[in-house]
Amino acid sequence: MRCKFCEKPAFIKLHYPKMYLCEEHFKEYFERKVKRTIERYKMLKPDEKVLVVVSGGKDSAVTAYILKKLGYNIECLHINLGIGEYSEKSEEYAKKQCEALEVPLHIVRVKELFGKGIGEVRTRRPTCSYCGLTKRYIFNKFAYDNGFDAVATGHNLDDEASFIFSNMMHWNTQYLAKQGPVTPAQFNGKLVKKVKPLYEVTEREVVAYALANGIEYMMEECPYARGATTLEYKAILNEMEEKRPGTKINFVKGFLRKKHLFEAELHETELRECKVCGMPSSGEICSFCRFWGLKEPIDFKLHL
């Protein structure tokens, strides 16, 4: 098969829109798509300082690569979760990726902070639940302490579609009301703006783009992710996408058009300052400080 725009052999067959592209034209297509996503949702301004959260995996590596290529002022943050060999490998990949891009990488190690890694805490709370809580708090606090204007994560179209699908299945309207490509800054900037530049590209396209640009990434899955329901929802959506290409993007765009219906139900809990760390909280002590039993705030400020 030949590329739609030139006579070179096809590198990838896209299912939606249906076309064959060579390596060069695929890279152009992907970059234009991400650039358009950033512009459409007014994610970033050219002069903003952006913190890219890199896990060592493909999505965050591609996010950092493409934002740097588009000329944004980026630095990266890797959170080592303390999950044995898996976390050590992840950190090595994050280092390699940032060295190749020549961008600063900051590393926060959960085990150094609390003496325990993810999976080592005795709690009834599911591991993925408190892992998510920990990551979100750390990257937000790190961004706030160091004056970043935005945090960029590597969520792609498949992630978003499965998250929306999962929450619709359980009618978690509060989660649905907050879901989207951009979460604006709140609480005097203590909740830093969050953006998802890969919001409209599929996982398959991300893999192909990483391959086309020689981006090395961690392929192993987190040992705690096995059996997660989100993987089941992804499989269902993949099956639907195969039968009807465009299902995922139409589902996500349709959700965004109707998101206001969920927002109407959202009764925002009034945020206040956490008594321990001073960050936004719905109660006297935020769930992060409560979970980790903190008595004083963690300072992530870089002392350069």
Automatic annotation (TrEMBL):
Residues engaged in binding Zn(2+) 1: 3, 6, 22, 25
Ranges where the Rhodanese domain occurs: 21-95
One Pfam family linked to the record: ATP_bind_3
Matches recorded under InterPro entries: Ncs6/Tuc1/Ctu1, Rhodanese-like_dom, Rossmann-like_a/b/a_fold, TilS/TtcA_N, tRNA_thiolation_TtcA_Ctu1, TtuA-like_LIM_N
Name assigned to this protein: PP-loop ATPase, YdaO-type
Gene Ontology CC annotation, any one: cytosolic tRNA wobble base thiouridylase complex
Organism, as annotated: Thermococcus gammatolerans (strain DSM 15229 / JCM 11827 / EJ3)
Matching Gene3D superfamilies: HUPs
UniProt cofactor(s): [4Fe-4S] cluster; Mg(2+)
Keyword Isomerase attached: no
Keyword annotations from UniProtKB, A to Z: 4Fe-4S, ATP-binding, Iron, Iron-sulfur, Magnesium, Metal-binding, Nucleotide-binding, Transferase, Zinc
GO molecular function: 4 iron, 4 sulfur cluster binding; ATP binding; metal ion binding; transferase activity; tRNA binding
Presence of the UniProt keyword GTP-binding in the record: no
GO biological process: tRNA wobble position uridine thiolation
NCBIfam families: TIGR00269 family protein (TIGR00269)
Residues at which Zn(2+) 2 binds: 274, 277, 286, 289
The organism's place on the tree of life at top rank: Archaea
